[in-house]
Amino acid sequence: MSLPPRRTTLWKQPDLTHSVLDDQAGPFDAVVIGAGIVGLTTAALLAEDGARVVVLEDRYAGAGTTGFSTAKVTVLHGVRYQKITQRAGAEAAANYARANNEALDWIRARAAADPELTRWEEQAAFTVAAEDDERQTVDDEVEAARAAGLPVEAVGGDAVGLPFPTSGAVRLGGQGQFDSGAFLELLARQATDAGAVIVTGVRATGVERRDGKSVVQTSRGTVTGSWVVVATGLPFLDRAALFARAEAKTSYAVAGRLDGDLPEGMHLSAGASPWSVRTAQDPDRDGGRLLVVGGGGHKTGHLGSSTVERYERLVAFGGRFGAFEPTHRWGAEDFVAPDGLPYVGGSKLLPADVLVATGFGKWGITTGVASAKVLAARIGGAAAQPWAPDWDVGRVGARQVGTLARLNGDVAARLAGGWLGALKPKG
Questions:
Q1: How far apart are CA 152 and CA 11, in angstroms?
Q2: pTM (2 decimals)?
Q3: Beta strands per DSSP E along 179-319
Q4: What is the span of the domain harbouring residue 307?
């Protein structure tokens, strides 16, 4: 079966009213750079609290990782809880669970404002032992997730709901899936209804201090704000050494029609090269459903085989469910911190009024919302969330920074012309 000819995400490209950047506008309480889930959630929270907010987006809302994810909304993040427990401690794992639970509830409530648009669906999530040698990892995740406060259960292979043998899974009910691009459209609408200004097609090129405020230089003029939130993923603001603290990963997805029974639930395998499975509504056929399979991940800059070959392997994997006709294919890049926790907040290496969020480790839907809550609380002067200290930008030691700098050396040249070099605070 041939691949779709173009890289096209299954999710909706948000339909936004384009505002014009007025060089005389402002000063704003907050200038948010990036219109993904972190930027738009931050903008909505702040605007609804009465703040004057502008969002600057180089391309369109969802043009980054959010619009090219598999759009699972879950607190069960593969085998993340055992990793966090081992590297950051049991309390950090419990705080991570709480953060993502609160984000899940927040997203569910927001999506309910327009379920037809967002295509919200309740689903159970599974982390699957695809092979016998992954069973111990799954058992360890059950233990770690329960210790973190999650009501997970261990299930046998016959309860996983896949058409091929497995060795069991971790199961967590009450999770969800949606159209991430459509959700961004809804978030943008809610933010602008509350008074936020969203400007697309404008690129931030620098930040400097002037008269006690930050002035963001853009391709269309300057914007002044009391706070600046950089919500673009990486690379950006390299004075904070974030590029050296998070490893770049690329992964892929294929959606298609299936001549066979679609599985129930959202699945992710527990192995070193995981695959992902969910279903979605077919945008081109009323009442139709698509199978969405993901995987083929690798360190950015370490492709190994061609991108086409990775998509073809996903199509072959989709064939394990029945005759699979691919309709969409896409990929995304994300960044993974050594301890499995995001980087959120300010840094001693940055101006005090510049905040960042990154390192979501392929789980940026819920962790992105939880990060936005940290940013909005900081800007609004509210009490910090319990997970904020664990996610602090400055927590990584020099040895880890050096290791990750070497890991990311392969992508440095490609990124040097982008945010890494373009957005450096002056003064």
A1: 29
A2: 0.91
A3: 197-200, 204-210, 213-218, 221-230, 247-259, 266-269, 276-281, 289-299
A4: 121-177+247-336
